[in-house]
Amino acid sequence: MTQTQGYFDPRFESVRELFAQHQTDPQARGSALCVTVGGETVLDLWQGVMDKDNSQVWEQDTLINVFSCTKPLGAVALLQQVEAGRIGLDDRVADVWPEFAQAGKEQITLRQILSHRAGLSAVSEPLDPEALFDWQAMTSAIAAQQPWWTPGEAHGYAPLTYAWLLGEPLRRLTGQMPGDYLRDHLCAPLGMDFHVGVADEDLPRIAHVSRLRNQQGDQYARDLFAAMGDPQGLAWKAFGNPTSLQTSTNKPAWQQAQILSANGTGNARSLARFWQVMAHDGSLGGTQLLDAELVALMRREHSVGMDRTLRCPTRFGLGVMLEQEWQGGSFGMGVNAFGHPGAGGALGFADPDARVGFGYVTNTMGPYVLTDPRAGELSREVYRCLRERD
């Protein structure tokens, strides 16, 4: 395996050592870590290999699918429409998406969707595998879907459907497909190498993703995987309908689709860049993503308790997860941290008190539901270094 490369501030040398130590695991393939403090980069590291045959080294510009780390960017895109006065948080989604007003969804609001309270965590009717890459097929299926519970009365994470629950209102409000909107209004202004729908010329830069073998995760992970064994249950429908969701990660069809909940492709640097702006109330270095009041609202608790989809405790703001006391739900820093994990180990978050932006990615997927222990170890060590410095 290749040695650790990149930059580190000497005050965070112990983080670099821990990151390098992760690569000694026989199953480790490739990973990257980037951390900013007060807008300054203190760690920008990468290591390992990126291809299926373990022969191509991970480069500075290697890209990887960050899965649900994509969701907060979609949430910010919708909140930009709120800031512009095009829609209100408590407006009905059906006001901008009339076909949505059926099957008991007439009164569902944008706020309920952003906070996973709409009862639309999955499509119950079996979908054709190719529907995943067909915008009209997915929006039609979601428009016809009856909520799994009374909207607003409980919360349950929407791992896949969130893409169209956010993306279709965004498309109708802006006239742009969501990946194009993110490119123009988030990624380009921040200089982020991040894509929802990868261009042909960037496909060779994408790392091949594979799962860790013979690992079951913690009890919550085992409970979720057991629940996914019921083909009619919410867990399987949320993560396995259409079935192509489980089999397409390394395929160009997935990489080039615009799936705002799950197929963002970037790197640790792009995640840290996004979250450093969010750590500074939505504005940094002359670039403003979002008004500070909306960032504060984004961070406010909207859902808390046992998650009907994930079967573990979750705590949500608007499009973001909030800090929890249990280790698997913690970002490893302060109580006001907010961000989002991605399937298999990716993690992006902000700690506004410490002014930290954090990004971690790996192409060796772990089995945990929320924060992967590898990312958690690194963030806790960053926090230890910060407190020692103070």
From TrEMBL:
Domain of life: Bacteria
Domain Beta-lactamase-related stretches: 15-370
One Pfam family cited in the UniProt record for this chain: Beta-lactamase
Entries under PANTHER family matching the protein: BETA-LACTAMASE-RELATED, BETA-LACTAMASE-RELATED DOMAIN-CONTAINING PROTEIN
UniProt name for this protein: CubicO group peptidase, beta-lactamase class C family
Source organism: Halopseudomonas litoralis
